[in-house]
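To: structure desk
From: M.T.
Subject: fold request, one chain
Message: Could you run this one when you get a chance? Sequence is below, nothing fancy, just the single chain.
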Amino acid sequence: MPDAKKKDRIPFRLVNNLPIIEVEINGTPLSFILDTGVKSTILFSLEAADSVQLKNTSPVTLQGLGAGGAVAALKSLSNHIKVGTAIDTRHALYVIFDSTLNFSPRMGIPIHGILGNEFFKNFIVKINYTSEVITIYNPKKYALKTCKKCEDLALNFVGMKPYISLKTASGEKQEEVKLLVDSGSSDVLWLFDKKGFIKESPKNYFKDFLGLGLSGNIFGKRTRIPKLLIGGFQLNEVSTSFPDEAAITKARYYEDRDGSLGGGFLSRFTVIFDYGNKIVRFKKNHKFNNPFNYNMSGLTLEHEGVELVKQEKQAVVNSDRLNANQSFSQNSISVTTEFQFSLVPKFVVVDVREGSPAALVGILKGDEVISINGKPSYQYKLYELVEVFSREEGKRISIEIKRNGVISKTRFYLRSVF
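Reply: Done. Structure tokens follow.
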């Protein structure tokens, strides 16, 4: 930051528990996920940002979560990057050209890249998930003050990535787990070892799509664990995912941790990262005691381009004439119908969970969603549709879909698996 500045406030947008901030690269403003789960800055979706000028490039390969293999990329050196008033004039980043690695359709808004820990290491970073503001402090001019309502935990670093130790609990049994703090994951908690939490009789889990990693789609099992202890704080009936082994073994993620904490956990706090002093601070916000929800419909939707919609618009003209005594002598009302055409988002089904309410009424992968509960789907944000599907068990969902050019209506009721 400029020498005279002690701090800077940067607004962000919270989408699916992920902080999205504006990052300017070589003069081009782009939208990035702020991600403590990666070391470096990664740029993708270049078809939407092809005016970015890249410097000093060389070919490399990257491996991340997902069942696929390594992906081809370019390493670019000496880039000018700006976040708020903070500037780096010699920033290294990685550029991925694989068109299948595109977070924008799943988020419903343009996402051009990921800003990783090279940003966090230079500042004390406070993420206020309630006000949707990130505050960065100059560590030479600011120090954390005592906070009686906070929990300060030690940060450990492996390959520049931040880890903390928490405890899972079931009955009287407690077990310490080493977890990557991953603000770029929308889930609550991932564990790589089932640790007795997954049971077949009675079955207490379901299989689901967990997310998109650098090396492809990630699938796994979802359940709840009884307790998660964060110092003196306690969360109950915590939604927890267990990714399939194929998604994590290629990236050797078993070797250095037991799992990860994502945005579904972090968004229940105001979080301060002080990498220099190896401390992370958690202060509860109003979401802390909210129940852990998940998508009970079984539908995974994606934004797939736009389509042209014809909308009817009525104009009413009321013409009143007054006589000399100010009484109405004539009233005339004219109603005209106009039409306007708009390009609106198109949402399609990209996955249907087996045995889910949506699957049981015959909704299929590839179906286009026309309306939800009588409201055109394009009037929702994609993350708002996820909230509709996660809000209330037993809620009726009336849905209109298009398949092979034919529109049909059906309905189902949100149902909890556990």
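Reply (cont.): Residues 160 and 335 are 66 Å apart (CA to CA). Let me know if you need anything else for the meeting.
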